[in-house]
């Protein structure tokens, strides 16, 4: 059992103060925020596990790279440094920078998705799902059944179900599927990796049907590290070589660089098809900026070029993945159920098991998240019915996700073991009085991406 993890492969040179405000203040802040943790002020949060997106600590090399940023509008040196890194790691023919992952998704969707076209994946993240729907398209999640069972220790629970994918393509046909995707690691399903074997099978099925294959690569380095650790035949292959192999299977990728490129802002869109690339550039100019900066400052491109390599560093990845496993283990030792095995970037508490008395339509993971802030000033994020329940346009009924999760997302290179011990101790206190927690109802909810701006009332 993981009782500790490798010491941080860095030491701390700059600090950022955090403070725990009083319980009464926390209660007031919750009310003011409409019980939506997104609406809290960051300064009122003690430990922020809302997301690992853009929240990592940059290294001294990245800060130094910022100073080298070339702010030329077109053809900046920063762009060419990023281009060299992108070509070296991912190997696609063409790329553009974007300001973050969803901008890449938006542009790809604008180019390829039309009303009533389907885009299958293992599981789309919420922004991908919404960008496809925003163009009238239909996202489909075809992950293996094991993903729905939090206790199942399958080493690659992010895998696509190949039989489901074949049946899906047979049902809708190539004309209805402009491209297929896979998300590595599968964030919506617990930060679970996809095996190389599965990636190869998925690529083959898409390509046999003539469907272009795109990878959502937000956490590709963590996924490749899991392949090295868990998949037969990869023990002695470097994470970078595993990444090269992974991307050689695909026709393109979208990436939020705010995760495994350890930058505070940035994204990438890569493709091999020249005509699609022309269209992407035109969309990019409309929405993001000139193709050599794509909505970013030159310095951001330089920080990304350095961060892409740091995210692949195997000492860093060993520490990072073990840190996540440590928090999960501490919770499991106290009888708090989390998705097994621990994911790469987050621990997912199975709120519907901890709070079986709260039904999905009263949002058990929202309730647990609110309580975690109330008890300890800690912010997690609901990944359950607030985020994913949706009204099916075909049968006009509500579809609820299989799991109600509270994600404790771990920013990169930010918190230490004592922070995680505090998080675990706080959740243990809540567990001892879990049966007293109540559900929530919406007082406001927008149609798409409602978790960001919804407001709630306790029941
Ligand atoms: N794809 C995946 C798998 C993601 O996890 C995210 C973002 C995106 C795409 C979109 O990228 O935020 O740069 O526009 N996930 C964050 C999270 C927000 O908290 O999981 P973005």
Describe this structure in words.
The strands form 6 sheets. Strands 2-8-7-6-5 form a 5-stranded mixed sheet, with helices on both faces. It is globular. It is α/β, with parallel strands linked by helices and 459 residues long. It has helices at 23-32, 60-67, 77-90, 101-112, 126-134, 162-172, 196-208, 220-230, 239-248, 274-287, 298-310, 314-333, 351-354, 364-376, 385-388, 417-431; strands at 47-48, 94-98, 118-121, 138-141, 180-183, 213-216, 252-256, 267-271, 346-350, 378-379, 381-383, 390-391, 398-399, 405-409, 440-444, 455-458. The protein starts with 22 loop residues before the first helix and ends with a strand. Helices cover 39% and strands 13% of the residues. The longest helix has 20 residues, at 314-333. The mean pLDDT is 96. The protein has 16 helices and 16 strands. The chain has 2 domains: 23-52 and 314-458, Aspartate Aminotransferase, domain 1, CATH 3.90.1150; 60-310, Type I PLP-dependent aspartate aminotransferase-like (Major domain) (Aspartate Aminotransferase, domain 2). Bound molecules: ligand F0G. Ligand F0G binds at residues 51, 53, 100-102, 125, 127-128, 183, 187, 216, 218, 256, 258, 267. The site of ligand F0G has 15 residues, from helix 4 and helix 5.
> Can you identify the CATH class of the largest domain?
Alpha Beta
Mean pLDDT score = 96
What gyration radius follows from the Cα positions, in whole Å? 21 Å
Helix proportion: 25-40%
């Amino acid at each position: 059992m993981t009782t500790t993890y490798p010491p941080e492969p860095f030491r701390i040179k700059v600090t950022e103060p955090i403070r725990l405000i009083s319980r009464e203040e926390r209660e007031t802040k919750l009310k003011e925020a409409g019980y939506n943790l997104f609406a809290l002020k960051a300064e009122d949060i003690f430990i922020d596990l809302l997301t690992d997106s853009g929240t990592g600590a940059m290294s001294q090399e990245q800060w130094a790279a910022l100073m080298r940023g070339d702010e030329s509008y077109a053809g900046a040196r920063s762009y060419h440094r990023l281009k060299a890194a992108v070509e070296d790691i991912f190997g696609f023919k063409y790329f553009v920078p974007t300001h973050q992952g969803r901008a890449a998704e938006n542009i790809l969707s604008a180019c390829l998705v039309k009303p009533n076209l389907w885009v299958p994946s293992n599981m789309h993240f919420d922004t991908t799902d919404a960008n496809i729907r925003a163009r009238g398209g239909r996202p489909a999640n075809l992950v293996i059944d094991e993903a729905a069972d939090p206790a199942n220790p399958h080493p690659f629970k992010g895998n696509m179900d190949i039989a489901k994918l074949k049946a899906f393509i047979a049902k809708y046909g190539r004309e209805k599927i402009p491209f297929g995707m896979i998300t590595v690691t599968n964030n919506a399903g617990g930060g679970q990796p996809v095996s190389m074997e599965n990636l190869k099978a998925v690529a083959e099925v898409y390509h046999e049907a003539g469907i272009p294959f795109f990878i959502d690569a937000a956490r590709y380095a963590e996924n490749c590290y899991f392949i090295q650790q868990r998949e037969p035949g990869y023990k002695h292959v470097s994470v970078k070589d595993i990444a090269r192999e992974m991307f050689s299977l695909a026709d393109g990728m979208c990436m939020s660089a705010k995760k495994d490129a350890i930058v505070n802002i940035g994204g990438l869109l890569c493709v091999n098809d020249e005509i699609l690339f022309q269209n992407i550039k035109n969309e990019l100019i409309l929405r993001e900026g000139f193709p050599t900066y794509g909505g970013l400052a030159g310095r951001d491109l330089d920080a990304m070029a350095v961060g892409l390599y740091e995210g692949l560093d195997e000492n860093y990845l060993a520490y990072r993945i073990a840190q996540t496993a440590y928090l999960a283990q501490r919770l499991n030792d106290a009888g708090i159920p989390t998705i097994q095995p621990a994911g790469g970037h987050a621990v997912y508490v199975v709120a519907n098991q901890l709070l079986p008395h709260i039904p999905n339509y009263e949002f058990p993971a929202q309730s647990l998240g609110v309580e975690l802030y109330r008890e300890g000033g800690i912010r997690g994020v609901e990944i359950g019915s607030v985020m994913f329940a949706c009204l099916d346009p075909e049968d006009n009924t509500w579809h609820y996700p299989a799991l109600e999760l509270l994600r404790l997302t771990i920013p990169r290179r930010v918190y230490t073991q004592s922070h995680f011990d505090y998080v675990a101790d706080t959740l243990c206190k809540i567990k001892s009085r879990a049966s007293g927690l109540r559900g929530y109802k919406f007082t406001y909810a927008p149609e798409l991406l409602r978790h960001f701006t919804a407001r709630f009332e306790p029941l």
